[in-house]
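Write out this protein's structure.
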Amino acid sequence: MIEEKKTGAARTQPAVRDEFWTDERVQSFLAMEPPEGVPADYHILLKAYRGMLPDTFERFLTFFLEAERDINARLADGTTMLDHVSRHRKSGEYARLLEEAGATRSR
């Protein structure tokens, strides 16, 4: 199952907003292994969305597509990453980047 995002005191390290991510670090997300029952490409997109600021996420999407990964990977219920991101009120830039990369909503 998908793990929930940690908030507040449950975080193990503080958020850092001004660090530069090398291409190697951005590409390292492509090697992440999903938990059982979660499509690998959905899991990778979720981790990148949760861990990257929009400018880094945009760079990541380029590498993701170059690796011929599935931008429309779906959970068992048919949910796509764009569906997931679109439910968050401050995710507009991420949703726009996903749409520009070819992502679609399931509904």
